[in-house]
Design brief:
This protein is α/β, with parallel strands linked by helices and about 200 residues long. The chain has a single domain, classed as Spore Coat Polysaccharide Biosynthesis Protein SpsA, Chain A (Alpha-Beta Complex), CATH 3.90.550.10. The protein is about 25% helix and about 20% strand. The strands form 2 sheets. Strands 1, 4, 5, 6, 7, 8, 9 and 10 form an 8-stranded mixed sheet that branches. A two-stranded antiparallel sheet has the order 2-3. About 5% of the residues have low confidence. One of its GO terms (biological process) is Mo-molybdopterin cofactor biosynthetic process. Keywords: Cytoplasm, GTP-binding, Magnesium, Metal-binding, Molybdenum cofactor biosynthesis, Nucleotide-binding, Transferase.
Length: about 200
């Protein structure tokens, strides 16, 4: 059994609103993600600092144990609250997440603590699997205020999955596409993306 956590930040300064609640085809980003993840994982929960915003989704919501520590704090909170050994972590601003890439990453979880895709932009740590073996190394980094997600990687077994080496379909690249600005959002809102 395996769980998934949606890392829901707060208000985005560049977008001007909470990205989780931007809409595509009549549904919010986070609702689209939940629909897909429900088909693949036993339990889905949300890591958020403003739980009341997400209560309508009827999923477990966990507040950051280390508030203000960014995504690394969200990963830590998710791991200590997850009942599964590996947990898939997903940022709330990736609405096109695709099952093929998740399945491909999941195949490597038996031997590794972190299974993370790498695109031409670099590592994608908020579309990746993390095991409970990461808890203590992450805690050490958080306590020292090293907030880069990869800061704890030297202390665990990491598998980097190069997307270029896969038969890159558009769905793989769309899967890790995140949206940061209002222009990017307007650009995709009217396109026919495979959601």
């Amino acid at each position: 059994s395996m769980n998934a956590a949606i890392l829901a930040g707060g208000k985005s300064s560049r977008m001007g609103s909470n990205k989780a609640f931007l809409k595509l085809k009549g549904k919010t980003f986070i609702e689209l993600q939940i629909e897909l993840l429900r088909e693949m994982f036993d339990e889905i929960f949300i890591s958020a600092n403003t739980p009341s915003e997400y209560e309508y989704l009827n999923l477990p919501i966990f507040k950051d144990v280390y508030p203000g520590k960014g995504p690394l704090g969200g990963i830590y909170t998710s791991l200590i609250n997850s009942s599964s050994f590996h947990t898939f972590m997903l940022a709330c601003d990736m609405p096109f997440v695709g099952p093929e890439l998740i399945k491909h990453l999941k195949n490597h979880t038996k031997e590794y603590d972190v299974v993370i895709p790498k695109s031409e932009k670099g590592l994608e740590p908020l579309h990746a699997f993390y095991s409970r073996n990461c808890i203590d190394p992450i805690k050490r980094e958080l306590e020292e205020d090293n907030l880069r997600i990869i800061s704890f990687f030297p202390h665990v077994n990491v598998k980097i999955v190069e997307l270029d080496s896969l038969v890159t379909s558009d769905s793989f690249n769309n899967s890790i596409k995140n949206l940061n600005t209002r222009d990017e959002y307007e650009g995709i809102r009217n396109k026919d993306f495979p959601v």
